[in-house]
Amino acid sequence: MSRTIIVSNRLPTKVLRTEESLTFQPSEGGLATGLGSIYRADGNVWVGWPGLFVQDAEEEQYVTEQLAADSMAPVFLTEAEIRDFYEGFSNSTLWPTFHYFTQFATYEQAHWDAYVAVNEKFCAAVLAQTGPDDIIWVHDYQLLLLPELLRRARPEATIGFFLHIPFPSYELIRVLPWRSELIRGMLGADLIGFHTFGYMRHFLDTVSQVLGLSAINGQIEVEQRAVRVDAFPMGIDYERYAQAAASEVAKEHEAVYREALHDVRVILSIDRLDYTKGIAQRLRAFELLLQRYPEWREQVSLIMLVVPSRDQVAQYADLKVEIDELVGRINAHFRTIAWNPIHYFYRSLPLEELASLYRLAEVALVTPMRDGMNLVAKEFVASKADQRGVLILSERAGAARELSDALIINPTDINQLAEAMHEALVMPEEEQIQRMTVMRALVKRYNVFSWTRLFLNQLAYTKMKQQTLATETLTPAPTNQLLDAYHAASQRLLLLDYDGTLVDFHPNPQRAQPDQELRLLLRALADNPRNRVVIISGRDRGTLEKWLGDLPVDFIAEHGVWLRAAGDEWSLFQPLRNDWKRELRPVLELYVARTAGSFIEEKDYSLVWHYRRVDTELGAVRARELLNHLSFMTSNTDLQVMEGNKVLEIKNAGINKGTAATRWLSQYSPDFILALGDDRTDEDTFRALPPEAFTVRVGSAPHSSARFHVGSPTEVRQLLRKLLG
Ligand code: GDG
User: In terms of domains, do 303 and 372 share one?
Assistant: First the structure.
């Protein structure tokens, strides 16, 4: 039976050293609750750092045993490792970069070296825990290299990766000296999850820019593997927050606060100390609110909880000073004997007190500059059982993609923020209820348990899909099977793609004409009255006719647009339009002008931009640009832009090699079918054929609907020669 191994930088239990002993303190983080039922299930385990520097082997063993009893396996890190890997590379390079704060990012080789070493350490720890059939789920930015390290050690493993912070635009990632290694590291996973579709898009773009790998429908082909990328917005344990807020303890706390505050209305702000959270901007906006709307003085207070964090890193210490000063200035300026504008707490509170603050507040201010998701926003919503209260939410928190009934603001726009606070304070109850009801239903439904289930199901599905779509090498055994079926059959259909299948690619497509050997081979096959040989190609009919028209073979040209049975005339698959070429050709010409070595091929019903002769990197970049450009221009038309092997082709949608091949099947009723092809357009043929057909993909393709694969056109020819006996 397969087990599930969760891996994250921190374990869900923190080991603390007190004067007399070690204590084990369970963490209350969202991830720990969400995955609690998973890692504690039979045989499963959570691997991570327990937050303690051990003194000796004896202590190490003790901690290991204690944690093992609760399904955890510790990775012990040294102080130097925490300094360079955690505070260094993770929090001073990746964290600022991924949150668009490159001005705070450092690029230290020693930090990178430690990051690599600690990821390797985690890899060893995970391998020690896992068997080949296990499912490994890696979390977050501290372990970006781990999926690939694991993949190298266990090529068949099922590996998922989830990033809890934003994935930024490629422009940010490209600054990192180690960008390729980091992206490759992530691609070791089978499934890569992000909170939002936007982060996923940035990642796919980065993969294409950094490694030149393109994606189709969120799937990237990496060597012999298909990697899936998807958005999984993380939720919270809704019931836990709802219950905590409804508890007697929370009510009691609230009553105490209420008494102290009299009738003052409460705006709430809760964050870890971090420059990404927009705390200073929020304070300035509150100050502006009091200046612009004096009627709120003595009527409204801001309760601001800042949880100490990362105070070893310089920017955090500076931020703390800035916040202290701002709070001091605003309070000194506005306070009265009876009223305190800002109640500022620099510490963490137990859950019940947090819950009572959620109860107490009428408005929650969640205004980060960037935030992967932000769970505080969801917790506030879950706590509001009476459906009242207003959430002000930054457009740049992942949560804004879901909680669109909040007042969505731009956190740098202090004017807008002050106005939103005012709007929240005067919002009619009816509107509050309306907005809150929608948000509560959403937070309840998409909770942390459904998130976990969805990710793990999708991971299992991805793996299953990989396995079913994995093609078998055409080794002697299946080859003999194929030959037996061929010899036994009386009506055989051979569907042969041309470029990349029967001949190798040539930098100039017009130079890829058939050699004598190929012509003889095709003639010999077609001369057999039991065979019907169809050349099924994306090429224009003129070229096919010129090169092979004298042979007794059938043709499917332009990916199914033109058909010709041996000796017959050409006919169109169905009536088509080509007047769109006039409009789109200038676009392709623009890209030819900008991209040396590229050129346009014009067919009757399609236009093709070729970039095989372009510098590899430039070609990939321009192809992405052109693809975007064309997708925009062809949306809502019946045209389709297709990515082939170093080509982009614009053609009529709905006609492809598969639809054309189907016509041969219906007219000819073969009892043996062999289809050979090397690219995505041939996948349409493979899919259109019955399951007993011998479908063979040529070249490397981790993901194909074909049953078999062979390495090259040379092997294709060997196979065809075998048919001749
Ligand atoms: C990363 C991403 C993403 C805060 N103060 C206290 C307290 N908290 C709890 C909150 C909430 C959690 O801490 C903070 O969650 P966030 O989502 O805001 O942020 P990060 O922990 O930095 O997490 C983030 C998250 O991963 C999940 O993927 O949303 O974007 O940065 O649960 O309630 N809890 C208690 N006392 C406090 O004083 N008990």
Answer: yes
